Amino acid sequence: MERMANPVVDAFTSLMAYGTDSLNRARQGMEVFESDLDTSIADTPFEVVFEIDRVKLKHYRSQTRKKAFQRPLLVVYALINRETMLDLQPGRSVLEIFLESGLDVYMVDWGYPTRKDQHLTIDDHVNGYMDKIVDFVLAKEELPTLNLMGICMGGTFSTMYAALHPEKINSLITTVTPTNFDTNDGFLHSWMKELDVDKLIGAWGNMPADVMNLGFLLLNPARLMLDKYNNFARNMGDRDFVENFVRMEKWIFDSPDVPGATFRQFITDCYQQNLLIQNKMVLGGETVDLRNITMPLLNIYGKKDHLVPPEACNRLISAVGSRDARDLCINTGHIGIYVSSRSQKEFAPEIIQWLADRESGRGLSAWASAT
Predict the structure, then answer these.
(1) pTM of the predicted model, to two decimals?
(2) Which of 94, 241, 265, 358 could share a disulfide with 235, CB 3.0–4.6 Å?
(3) Is 251 helix (H, G, I), strand (E, B) or coil?
């Protein structure tokens, strides 16, 4: 005879099964936690070739027998978080893909600002540190120009630099780079428009990393706190998952403070007045005119980016003077564009091919025929 449904019994049975499953996961998790985990990040060898104040320049040499590119790539990360994002682990490293292609890479390490850095402005970073680094690389490589790649805020700085010093840049790559700040697509842009940045910097001097991290979490607390750690609990018996989780946590919480005057200027001039895209931003007494960017430009951004939404990125190529300017929108988020296995198959190889085409002289014609 068919058993009659009993909701109470069914619910109790399900609860017992869930409890047993959770207990098994907990046991498996303890075994993983007690083992020797490999959670190191940024293991690719490099040489520090230049230092000024807190800032270092790392040189990663391609180990291929023959360099495939005449010019190196200079990578400028944001002042927020660390450039180690590009080299989380073997097999999950944008840097590794670049080097395997025969591309030499220089990368800016902004270091950890202290109170003595609180008065440094955007001009100090762009026309100061960046310009000295570019000049060093050009002299070292005995080249007139180099390829420049900027990431997030570092991409905004790189855009400014290319507009002010176009004679030193062969090609420009911007990734998840905000250049149009007049958008309400995403809480970050809405919050920054109302932020009383003078009170924050007046209280702290530099913008504390812990405060910024808390703000980023509050942009999407359900996904960035509840879902993330619930997912960890479900997968804590998976050694690879745990190692990758810890690597990412290491990167997230290895966050430098941001020099106070730079943070203030970035909020007021960019988020609140949107000066850059209007060619009204002034650094070192000179207007940043995006029409001076006449070198090839590849502008990459994420379709699902909640920090720098597409609307914050997709006006750049129409504002520059380059005839060889291209948008590439990848179906991922702000961090996933660099670390997800799916995005890495598209992101880094696209950059390599784009640089190779321009080095061979196929750039504009190849792009025009493809579109």
Answers:
(1) 0.88
(2) 241
(3) helix
